[in-house]
Give the backbone structure.
Amino acid sequence: MPNVRMIADGVRLVSEQTDRFKTGRITVSMALPMDEKMAANSLLIFLLKRSCKEYPDFSLLNGKLDELYGASLSASVSKSGEAQVLSLSLTFLDDRFALADESIAEQCAKLLVSMIFSPNCKNNSFGSENLAAEKRLLIQRIEEELNDKRTYAFNRCISYMCANEAYGKDKYGTVEEIGNVKMADVYSAWKNLLSTAIFQITVVGSSSADDVADIFAKKFEKIERTPVKPETVFYRRGGHFNRFEEKFPVSQGKLVIGFRSGMSNSKDNLAAVTVMNDIFGMGTYSKLFMNVREKLSLAYYCWSRLIASKGLVLVESGIDTDKEKKVSVEVLAQLSDLRNGKTDPEVLDSSKRSLKERHTFTTPEGICAWYASQVLEDEILTVEELNAEIEKVTMEQVCEAAKKLLIDTIFMLSAEGEEGAENAD
Amino acid sequence: MQIKQITNEKLGESVFCARHGSGLEIRVMPKTGYSSAYAVFGVKYGSIDTAVKNENGEFETIPEGTAHFLEHKLFESEDLNAFERFAKTGASANAYTSFEKTAYLFKGSENIGESLEILLDFVQSPYFTQETVEKEQGIIGQEIRMYQDLPDWQVMFNLLRALYSVHPVRIDIAGTQESIAKIDADLLYKLYKNFYNPANMVLCVVGAIEPQEVFDIVDRCIKEADAKLAERKFEKESGKPVQSYIEEQLSVAQKQFLLGFKEELDEPLLSLEDEIASEIVLEALCGKSSPLFKRLLDEELIDMGFGSEMFNGFGFSCVMLGGTSADPEKTSEIIKSEIAKAQADGIDPVAFERAKRKFYGRYVMCYNDIDDIANIMMNLYFNGYEPFAELEACKNLTIEKAQERLNVLKAENSALSVITPIA
């Protein structure tokens, strides 16, 4: 069971103490509303990761990480519902394995605090060269999303589907917005982050999290906090759907079908929706795997993904462009069977067992990610609690959840020059 | 079975090793405090195995992509397929094929013994029909097409094709649409018989299970067989690449590149010490804390994804460096001159120590994850090493050895692979 405590207004520390791992991990998650400041926020997190007052240069900071037995530092930007979440994470070797007598955990916690609270900043500036470099890298990162067509198609489907919602925006902000960010914007984004973001510090490792809590609490004492909690709007659209298509010179097409799950918040009917999505298209016993892949051999992958923080379900498949219609029809036929109870009762048991298995984490990263993803939840849900809820789900509840699943948007990334004769009609 | 225990005191871990009468090697690492176990059943049969020895002792060519095709097909059986059987124990099962091996695996936290029995049983029970082979050709065909659109994958295989003229490391792991069309049920049975001999296989189990339970299950489930090793063909190549530059256009945002240095091998396998020395010297030379990384970043020639890799196996060995770049040629020239400089002046001892420390830390970190551990144990076995050999090799590495490995890299043995955006 995790230890949960508030160490400042809107700053929660969640820790799990265990000595079964050889590493420890700390993740600091910082949630902000998805507004016009997204681009500046994104640049900020990469600037914080680049250097800090103590190690005021990219090479020095990375040299320090190498000396800490290859401690691994990562920064990321993600969406959790309609919030932009900035994260900094460090994985480090447990003190027991150091070659000399030294505390790696303590040095790592201090390093993270130093990056967040004492950045490499002079006269309200992160350095124009640093900002220019991070702008280039971030813009490149966004443009490179095109390289992986599966992820690109997935994101495009969401952006079309949620075009009139904050969730439809790119998590980093647009290339244009990033280009326009000024130094003063980044500096104020940092000030804004410290005073208004919802923070969660997640700690997994062999030592007690008390020291980490103290180190962070002392820093927050000096900051006037007015936390702002981002809210997410859940839509239950239906009755009509849109189809969008983009063409690329590729060999395989990518089909993405976006559904609304009918959830009204991220925990609404969560257990039943999770099982329904799993039976629909997650496991090897799922309807999509068994039929689209195994029976019809139309695809190597065809699966569904639940985004509970926004109440969406997305089906993805890599297919021949001219098979779009055939695959879409089959996906909807499988959904229809799921709604009408045409599912082997054994599959429900398989799904429950498999979900429980997937909720058994064998790394500090897995445990950390589970808690960190709940940065905006009022109560921390443990895997044991969710598993207990999943255990109670009945086939009727699965059918009901499937009935609420409504198709919203189809996005097809087509291979150029492979017009589908089979799609015509 | 005689059981040997190998312990690493610093790590606080032990591996229990035994050899079954059939020739199957078994390695088990019990982990306290874990509720899950991970098991991998590996066969020394990968995409580089494009020839089998016949009764006359001659190598006969087989189609490309058979190891991978067989991996897909073994999950099938006459009644319940392997996925359906694992669904009853709750374990998540999977498999993968690489250049040198095929691996079948599961992770589970309940009914671990039962899952292990299923794993051993389905891998020993081939069942192929012409109908199911044809069905799989469709699925694998889509898998091949998926990889054709992935620039990271293409840039690597193009480099391998530029470096190697005959060694099968140059062919795609799944083969091609044409080569898999030549596969039928009879061929699969023949290849199964050749490669899936217990003497050619290893079982590694890590996590919440007692070693004795694993040995008992093996005794019960592994069929006795005449131990017969499948011989691998050593395609010896000179250090010279086929071509020094290769380019392909794909739907990408920016240019991607991979610079490779080929090494001529007298023996098919590099020693573990040599392999680790190369990894560490690369890290010292172009890791994130190196002056080279900083310079390339400041000159806007790379991004954070720039990295290097030692890539070696049976009959092949090369170093690869690459990522995204606006100017791959210029970037490659800078890298080559930095390598030449370090060869002439010697490696910076501070950078070497830092890189060694980083690798030591990362190797220890691998012993967290039951998945990583089992795969490391399997690879060590297939290459003829005892458990934990990589930790010792890393700890004992000298700067002289690292320098020696650096000096293997020669500009005339290099090739550059570039993916450019379609105009």
